[in-house]
Design brief:
Blueprint (H helix, E strand, L loop, with lengths): L1 H9 L18 E4 L4 H17 L4 E6 L8 E7 L8 H11 L4 H14 L9 E6 L5 H14 L3 E7 L2 H13 L11 H16 L7 E5 L5 H9 L10 E5 L15 H7 L13 E5 L6 E7 L3 E5 L1 H18 L8 E6 L4 H10 L4 E4 L3 H8 L4 E5 L5 E5 L1 H9 L5 H16 L7 H15 L3 H5 L7 E6 L8 E3 L4 E4 L3 H10 L5 E6 L6 E6 L3 H15 L1
Parallel strand pairs: 2-4, 4-5, 6-7, 6-8, 11-12, 11-13
Antiparallel strand pairs: 1-3, 2-3, 8-9, 9-10, 13-14, 15-19, 16-17, 18-19
Helix pairs in contact: 1-4, 1-5, 2-3, 2-5, 3-4, 7-14, 7-15, 10-11, 10-14, 10-15, 13-14, 17-18
The structure holds 2-acetamido-2-deoxy-6-O-phosphono-alpha-D-glucopyranose and zinc ion.
Length: 536
């Protein structure tokens, strides 16, 4: 206790104004980096407890603020199989971080151990990584201090993309078992991806150059490193890495990256967009992906998470059919309320696959995707992945093919199982998946875009007095509070054709968000503004 107390005094919590408190939200704790040192220390205490609770398995801690500006940072916990921290534990994180004094912190830490029947003498292990933000150094040393103070073994994996840390957590905990997820090293991650990519490509040709905007974040150097692992001559992936300056912290996510592209609905101004070029953007920690090109006639066209989701579902659905597994394997797609209505229609009516809608936040989508043999989940913002159940993976490897076509499909499915990150959305892995699918279909981005037309839509951020007054039901598609607000939204929606709108409190900012879609752009804009006025 003395050790924890002394260490805690070196990493004080910055008190908030009366009535305010820190909250472990959809992205863990995320805010101005100057507020995070004490928080990260306390997160370290909780990660150590979690490891001890779960038979000394390794727990991950990632220090990143994703697409936020350079001055922010964040910290979140990764569970043993590479998943997000179990929801029940979020409140313990919130509890520890909001302790008013070091003494209270130690008391609450011990109480938590007692309540959860955790043996504080059991071994514990935590592994961690960080993105390129300069503030990361200080935060991981506070984290290490907490791990020292609690006699926890730890490994500092230094600079990583968020999905690489998730990979490493799972690889660490499955090492040497039949469920082994790959070598426990950054190189192991690249080797696994490169090998699976070559297998999945099956000598198909990739057309032209892919320009990858890395948001001047950690994805830049990591993507460049990955490219060295692709065997020359086996696949012709030609990648041009741009916006990969990680030496000037202030340019991180500045006028570039997946979040910029999605919210501004345009290409990053630098480098100057080349009409016709196939482009994609990663976000600051490389877990989100957006594709786009500048059409010489129609201008900017974006292929977002909904498009990636429907592309993956269509390709994998066809493969499962070709492999003769249609009746054995259940494929499902998971979306949030932000998914464009046209994508939902395309998946249910054209692909004839079930779609389930969940609240925003990867943990919700991931969980539901696990209930299928193959669960495809993407948020419209470009975060997502495809999960394969152990049964599905076994079927790909063990089913005896009845024809060369079946054999081919089974091999491609098995390769996708290795290529696609099974722990969390991974922009580099998702990008390779998209390249594989486009190569197999011999599609340009324009062909991909032609599969359906998005409904015009508009997203607005609304400043409200107290966002906590807004409660939702039906996977965030309806407001249950404040009283009467939903009725007003319904009345507004009725005035437009093919319209839909919802409002929800942001989980990452002190504001509400309103989404609206309708038959025309001007109607979508008008509806969004009406709904914004209702909740203002
Ligand atoms: C977090 C979520 C992201 C979600 C976003 C919504 C994870 C890893 N990240 O960044 O999935 O789309 O929050 O933000 O779950 P909002 O609640 O502010 O709209
Ligand atoms: Zn991110």
């Amino acid at each position: 206790d003395d050790k924890i107390l002394a260490a805690s005094k070196r990493h004080p919590i910055v008190p908030l104004e009366k009535g305010q408190f820190y909250k472990y939200g959809t992205a863990g704790f995320r805010m101005r980096a100057s507020l995070l040192e004490g928080i990260t220390f306390r997160v370290g205490l909780l990660a150590a407890l979690r490891s001890r609770k779960l038979n000394s398995q390794a727990i991950g801690v990632m220090v990143t603020a994703s697409h936020n500006p350079a001055a922010d940072n964040g910290v979140k916990i990764v569970d043993p199989m590479g998943e997000m921290l179990e929801q029940d534990w979020e409140k313990y994180a919130t509890g520890l971080v909001n302790c008013q004094s070091d003494e209270e912190l130690v008391k609450q830490y011990n109480e938590l151990a007692h309540q959860l029947k955790i043996d504080l003498k059991a071994p514990a292990k935590v592994i961690y990584g960080r993105d390129t933000r300069p503030s990361g150094h200080k935060l991981v040393s506070a984290l290490a201090d907490a791990l020292e103070a609690t006699d926890t073994e730890y490994v500092d994996h230094k600079l990583l993309t968020t999905p690489q840390l998730h990979y490493l957590v799972r690889a660490t905990n499955t090492e040497g078992t039949p469920l082994s997820y790959g070598k426990v090293s950054e190189a192991g991650y690249y080797e696994k991806l490169a090998h699976a990519f070559v297998r999945a490509m099956k000598n198909k040709k990739i057309d032209g150059t892919l320009t990858v905007d890395c948001a001047n974040g950690i994805g830049g150097p990591k993507l460049s490193e990955f490219l060295k692992y692709i065997p020359k001559g086996k696949v012709n992936l030609d990648v041009k890495v741009v916006n990969d300056d990680v030496l000037r912290p202030e340019v991180l996510n500045l006028d570039c990256g997946a979040d910029f592209v999605k919210t501004k609905q345009r290409a990053p101004p630098i480098p100057k967009p080349q009409p016709g070029a196939r482009c994609c953007s990663l976000d600051g920690d490389a877990d989100r992906l957006m594709y786009y090109w500048i059409d010489p006639e129609r201008g900017f066209f974006m292929l977002d998470g909904d498009r990636i989701s429907s592309l993956a579902a269509s390709f994998i659905g066809d493969l499962v059919e070709s492999a003769g597994l249609k009746h054995d394997i259940r494929i499902g797609v998971v979306q949030t309320a932000y998914a464009n209505g046209a994508s939902t229609n395309y998946i249910t009516q054209h692909l004839k696959l079930p779609v389930i809608c969940t609240p925003t936040g990867v943990k919700h989508l991931h969980h539901v995707a696990q209930s299928f043999d193959i669960g495809v989940y993407f948020e419209a913002n470009g975060h997502g992945t495809v999960l394969f159940s152990p049964d599905a993976l076994t079927a790909f490897k063990e089913k005896q093919p009845q024809s060369p076509a079946q054999k081919d499909a089974l091999e491609t499915l098995a390769a996708l199982g290795d290529l696609i990150n099974q722990t969390v959305g991974d922009a580099i892995s998702d990008m390779l998946m998209v390249e594989v699918i486009l190569a197999h279909k011999a599609w340009s981005l324009r062909d991909w875009a032609m599969t359906y037309s998005d409904l015009p839509n508009r997203l607005v951020r609304v400043e409200v007095g107290n966002k906590d007054l807004f409660h939702t039901t039906d996977a965030e598609r309806r407001l249950s509070h404040p009283e009467g607000a939903q009725q007003e939204i319904d009345d507004a929606v009725k005035k437009y054709k093919d319209a839909r709108s919802f409002a929800r409190a942001s989980g990452t900012e002190n504001a509400c968000r309103v989404y609206a879609e309708a038959a025309t752009r001007s109607e979508a804009n008008e509806l969004a503004e009406r709904v914004a006025r209702i909740i203002e």
